Each structure stands twice: as structure tokens, then as C-alpha cells.
Amino acid sequence: MTNENISTINNLDNNFSSSKLAHQFINGTSKEQFKLIPQLTSMGNSGWEILIDFLKLSDVNSLDLIQGEIYRELYKAKTPETELFIKNYFPNGLVSLDSQANIDYKLLSKSLLEENFQEADTLTRHILWELAGEGALERKWVYFTEVANFPVIDLHTINTLWWLYSGGKFGFSVQRKLWLSVGKDFNTLWRKIGWKKDNHWTQYPKEFTWNLNAPIGHLPLLNQLRGVRVANSIFLHPVWSEKNW
């Protein structure tokens, strides 16, 4: 058998393997798809093509964690193919950066995609001041009474960015679900998300965990001195009736 014949057979095998994986991925459950993503990313271009085609056909108006995981992997890959796809299809990320308050969310999106969570947390805090108005910008914290006036669109954008680009680990909606699960007990919530240990507040910034090894709901942070009332106002905001988070 010649080298050319061996090469042809290898290509056919690879094509068959790629087609089989593509079929498994497209028709699999979410759990199966999550398991297949590392295998596809390790295949090089053929694997990236499967993930790119899947994302092209996805409904980006109804985002889920599979789409977020694929996009994050494509973003991190930094290959000519993945960068061209991102440039042509999702130059500002997977999340629509809508704002009723004319806030530019590009930097927050970039920080979260690059897993620079401390920077993203700082940006989020500043955005909340901006949403609260001039008084909050001057004093550098938010009154709980100002939260009700936050535009639904903006809170939705902020939360979606955190939720999607952390693989569902961070975001106000995640914290809210945990809060509901512990009977709306904030002391229990603070311990559950790592903001408090025993009777001591976690010290900012060195004692917080700025990566995906953090407890679920660890980020973004709220002002702990006024955390109960501000958090309560955020968790009761009308945005949560807009979507089944």
C-alpha cells in the first residue's frame, strides 16, 4: 500500500469520525454535549467546524449554557478560523449588549470572556452606580430604594453576561435562586456563596476567589455594609419575572 493510499484511508477515517461526532453532538442531550466539547476542541479544525456550525444554527435569542460554553471555547482558541468566525458573526460577543441607559457593555463582556472576574466585578459596581444616577456616582454606592428604577433591559444584560460567561456559576439570578432555596435567609446565603465564614465577613479583595473555583453565586459582589437591603431590592426586581431564570 502506497503512502498516498494510507493518507486517503486516514482522511476517510477522520471524516467518518468527525461526521459521527457531529451527529452525536447535534442530537445529544445537554449533558452529552458538555462532555463532547473537550473532545471536539482537541480535534483541531474539524472539531472547531462542528462547534461553529452548531453555533451558527443556534437561536441566539434564547441563549443557553451550551452556546455559552462553545463561544467561550472559540474565543479562547485564538486560531485564524475561530477569530474570523467571531469577527464575522459575534464581534461583540454572544450576548446582545442592550441598554436603556446608553451604557456600553463591551468592556464588561470582554472581561468576563477573559475570566478577569475582579475587573468585571469592579465594572459591574460602577455600572450599578451609573444606573442609580448622579447621586450614586458621587457617593460611590447605591441606595436600596434606587434599585427599583434600574431598567429591566440593563439588569438583564448584566446578569446574562455574568451567567453565560461563567458557565452558569455567577450572576444575580444565581444568587437569587440560592437565596430562595435557603428561605430568603441572608446570613445563610452569605455563608453559602463565600461572603462570610463563621461570623467574619470575607475581606475584599484578597479573601475573595476571582476565578471559576469560587463557590456558586460568589460573584458579582454587593456592598456588604448595605448588602441585605440592596441585595433584597435586586432579588425583588421585576427583571426576574421577564424570564424563567
UniProtKB/TrEMBL annotation:
<dbReference type="Pfam" id="PF16416">
    <property type="entry name" value="GUN4_N"/>
</dbReference>
<protein>
    <submittedName>
        <fullName>Ycf53-like protein</fullName>
    </submittedName>
</protein>
<dbReference type="InterPro" id="IPR037215">
    <property type="entry name" value="GUN4-like_sf"/>
</dbReference>
<feature type="domain" description="GUN4-like">
    <location>
        <begin position="99"/>
        <end position="238"/>
    </location>
</feature>
<feature type="domain" description="GUN4 N-terminal ARM-like repeat">
    <location>
        <begin position="10"/>
        <end position="91"/>
    </location>
</feature>
<dbReference type="Pfam" id="PF05419">
    <property type="entry name" value="GUN4"/>
</dbReference>
<dbReference type="InterPro" id="IPR032192">
    <property type="entry name" value="GUN4_N"/>
</dbReference>
<dbReference type="InterPro" id="IPR008629">
    <property type="entry name" value="GUN4-like"/>
</dbReference>
<dbReference type="InterPro" id="IPR016024">
    <property type="entry name" value="ARM-type_fold"/>
</dbReference>
